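User: Could you go from structure to sequence for me? I need the amino acid at each position, not a summary. Structure tokens:
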């Protein structure tokens, strides 16, 4: 006889009036589910924890009832009992350059966490405070079982802190630290290398690139790929001075407008995001320059925006939803137990 039948023998399902007893302000508990299903509280608890000793049919029935009445586990009690919060914290820097950055990444993460007991909590980080502050706060107060953060630096203090404290994490981006660590990254070297080669093949002879702020690791990767391509081909080049991918879109547009009006105007532009690409298009239009003839452009695309733009813009795609999915799956593996670090690293190719 299944274990839950032994525990619940003699009990009967309660009539629908149990649901009526739970008013709109009454928080459903394990006992509520037990009374509605006729099962013991211990059986309900184990069924929600997906204990294999409980029959699959019973586990499914308990989860169905829990969902119907809006049951949520008491995280404080859960943390005292298991030492876990069942929370993954995503620390995000709001910035406008990459369209749909947060939405796409969150979509991937929630897909990775679907069907698990984990919930995703978004923790904002603003540029006027140290990057390490929200990460330190989450770790010290055990507000999550794992942390995900973005925009890594070559010697990232967040990575050092979490490694030293053996706290599960994964970051979107790499570092130059000697100690290996979990990450998911996009091959920005290949992006700029291929973008430059596309422009040169199309006839551009003076290339300009707008880079991220130099403190970020991916800025170095983008610079390296760009410089490799232009040196191989021997074409003129320049790196935008005075604006970065973090600059406001109006500032990027105004800077580009001034530059396009100066001697030795660039005729090929590499943009690490759709916002800066739109700024190039606006500045070119204001100078009555024809896109694809007087000015050529290759942009990194993270949304479907440029699928609707005419004339068509050459793009290279970065899949942020896939990045979120990979980070979620790898972090869950790390939380579950020790895993060789190289198995917690992924590089998305161009």
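Assistant: Here is the amino acid at each position, in order:
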């Amino acid at each position: 006889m299944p274990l839950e039948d032994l525990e619940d023998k003699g009990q009967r399902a309660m009539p629908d009036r149990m649901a009526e007893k739970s008013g709109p302000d009454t928080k459903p508990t394990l006992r509520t589910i037990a009374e509605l299903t006729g099962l013991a509280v211990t059986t309900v608890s184990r069924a929600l924890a997906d204990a294999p000793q409980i029959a699959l049919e019973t586990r499914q029935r308990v989860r169905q009832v829990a969902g119907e009445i809006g049951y949520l586990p008491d995280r404080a009690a859960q943390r005292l009992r298991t030492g876990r919060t069942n929370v993954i914290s995503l620390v995000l820097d709001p910035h406008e350059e990459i369209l749909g950055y947060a939405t796409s990444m969150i979509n991937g993460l929630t897909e990775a966490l679907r069907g698990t007991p984990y919930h995703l909590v978004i923790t904002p980080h603003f540029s006027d405070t140290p990057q390490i502050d929200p990460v330190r706060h989450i770790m010290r107060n055990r507000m999550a079982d794992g942390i995900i953060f973005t925009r890594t630096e070559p010697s990232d203090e967040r990575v050092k802190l979490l490694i030293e404290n053996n706290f599960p994490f994964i970051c979107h981006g790499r570092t130059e630290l000697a100690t290996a660590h979990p990450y998911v990254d996009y091959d920005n070297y290949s992006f700029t290398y291929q973008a430059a080669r596309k422009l040169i093949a199309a006839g551009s002879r003076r290339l300009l690139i707008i880079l991220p702020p130099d403190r970020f690791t991916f800025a170095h990767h983008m610079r390296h790929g760009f410089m490799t391509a232009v040196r191989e081909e021997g074409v003129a080049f320049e790196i935008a001075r005075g604006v970065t991918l973090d600059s406001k879109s109006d500032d990027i547009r105004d800077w580009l407008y001034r530059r396009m009006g100066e001697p030795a105007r660039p005729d090929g532009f590499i943009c690490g995001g759709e916002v800066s690409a739109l700024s190039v298009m606006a500045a070119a239009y204001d100078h009555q320059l024809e896109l694809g003839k007087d000015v050529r452009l290759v942009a990194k695309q993270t949304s479907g925006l440029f699928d609707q733009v005419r004339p068509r813009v050459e793009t290279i795609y970065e899949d942020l939803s896939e990045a979120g999915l990979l980070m979620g799956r790898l972090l869950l593996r790390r939380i579950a137990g020790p895993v060789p670090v190289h198995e917690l690293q992924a590089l998305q190719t161009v």
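One structural detail worth keeping in mind: Residues 1-22 have pLDDT under 50 and may be disordered.
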